[in-house]
Write a structure and sequence with these properties.
Blueprint (H helix, E strand, L loop, with lengths): L9 H33 L10 E5 L15 E4 L4 E8 L3 H8 L4 E5 L9 E8 L9 E8 L11 E7 L7 E4 L4 E3 L2 E7 L5 E5 L1 E6 L2 E6 L6 E2 L33 E4 L1
Antiparallel strand pairs: 1-2, 3-6, 4-5, 4-7, 5-6, 7-15, 8-13, 9-10, 10-11, 10-14, 12-13
């Protein structure tokens, strides 16, 4: 607007405008140099992409390292933590059927009682069956705020596909095997023994589900089966007289690694 009123000459206007343009270019160049300096400063630090616990330092001050070829430090995320386990190829169709509804897994350490198992979400099902073992890999994500599970530990994993209502359970030691299959000795009201063929289902800790052959509230022989004869009298011992056999404890859960 000033140049149009001829208050200054065209030459003075061009000189001052050129000085402003040069100054603006110098400002932009300085800002670019500042951004470059900030970027170079970021290269002086290495930030972990996850929160976790650091392991042993793999290099010391003065060691020569190369990009993408040297590991400086191992960091393991502890919360949440992954529990990797496998299922057999035979069980794959049932797992695939229930995956859409959201599967859960009970994860615990081998030294923990079953009541202390923690619930994890199944978030990964592998896309192939392992040729060598005929198994499929799965992964459960488990909350671990108290660091109860540790990376690399072996754990017991129970995959929950469905809940069977009003199931009949008996202790594992009550079941016997013959050439015709599984059977139990049922104690009748007159304290005589009856050999009863049964069909067994899944195991639940120290108990096993009986799907056929046994009704609820029926009594079964837990010890001394070798001395029992069908139709013979049995002596019902009190709880204090029943011997405990630690070898009868069966662990049927899949083993996995966290």
């Amino acid at each position: 607007e000033i140049i149009n009123t001829r208050a200054i000459s065209k030459q003075d206007y061009d000189t001052k405008k050129n000085a402003v343009d040069v100054g603006q270019a110098q400002v932009e160049a300085a800002q670019a140099a500042l951004e470059t300096a900030k970027l170079n400063l970021e290269y002086c630090y290495i930030h972990s992409p996850i929160d976790g616990r650091a392991g042993a330092r793999l290099v010391d001050v003065g060691n020569v390292v190369q990009a993408n070829s040297s590991s400086l430090l191992s960091i393991q995320r502890l919360d949440p933590i992954y529990a990797n386990f496998t299922i057999t190829e035979r069980d794959l169709p049932a797992v695939q059927k229930e995956m859409a509804h959201g599967l859960k897994a009970q994860v615990r350490l081998p030294s923990d009682p079953e009541s202390n198992a923690r619930i994890g979400r199944i978030e990964f099902l592998d896309n192939a069956v392992q040729n060598g073992t005929g198994t499929v890999n799965l992964r459960a994500t488990v909350s671990n705020p108290d660091r109860h599970f540790w990376p690399g530990q072996f754990v017991n994993v129970k995959l929950v596909l469905a809940t069977e209502k009003k199931a009949v359970l008996i202790p594992n030691q009550a079941t016997q095997i013959s050439q015709q299959g599984s059977f139990v000795y049922v104690v009748k009201p007159d304290n005589t023994a009856e050999l009863r063929p049964v069909k067994l289902g899944q195991r639940q800790g120290q108990d096993v589900v009986v799907t056929e052959g046994l009704a609820a509230n029926e009594r079964v022989v837990l010890a001394g089966q070798l001395l029992v004869r069908p139709g013979g009298k049995v002596r019902v011992a009190s709880d204090a007289q029943v011997p405990t056999n630690a070898e009868n404890k069966a662990n049927t859960q899949d083993r996995g690694q966290s």
